[in-house]
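To close the section, here is one more complete example, presented without commentary so you can practise reading it yourself. The ligand is pyroglutamic acid.
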Amino acid sequence: MKTVLITGFEPFAGEQINPSQEVARALDGRVIAGREIIGATLPCVFGAARYELARLVRTQHPSVVICLGLAGGRAEITPERVAINVDDARIPDNAGGQPVDLPVIRGGPAAYWSRLPVKAIVAALRERKIPAAVSQTAGTFVCNHVFYALLHLLRWQRGIRGGFIHLPYLPEQARPGGPSLPLATMIDGIACAIEVTVKVRRDLRTTGGAVQ
Ligand code: PCA
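Output:
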């Protein structure tokens, strides 16, 4: 059976939990659209995160790779459109590293487009009443780092689809009155994103509904 690799991140910035890790754990071992899901956790550490991702891709041979991360403060599930070749950390990573204005890959292109059907995913989520929007920036911290490194790794492997989706806070993490989504909604949303990615070869061309 073909496999889909779903990665989440360990908690970071003093948080006790990371919804992306919880979603990857919850989906591990499930079968969605005829694919076996392999859920794994990446360290929130520049360098180490992308080496672990590369090891997983090499050993698991997935046909789809979706990396997940937390974007606290966002209200929607946000498939990322583009990864950029810069590490610029506002806070230290979990190993104390804080690269500033460094490339993810020296000599790499400025950016890579996601290989996920980001608009079809957003449309399918909204149809299920799950808040979703395309995001135009994955930031410049470890999430963008892993997203860029994934697409760089896949650059010669046309058959493998890959990209990144950011998740909001869980209700127990959110600031009072701040946006969040229940874990069950995020799990349903990512299961739906996997199904859409497996089934949709060409993305939709729809307008509106993007967040920054
Ligand atoms: N979010 C961070 C890194 C790990 C995570 O879950 C980010 O958006 O870069």
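Once you have examined the tokens, check your reading against these statements. The mean pLDDT is 96. Helices lie at 19-27, 48-60, 118-127, 142-153, 183-199.
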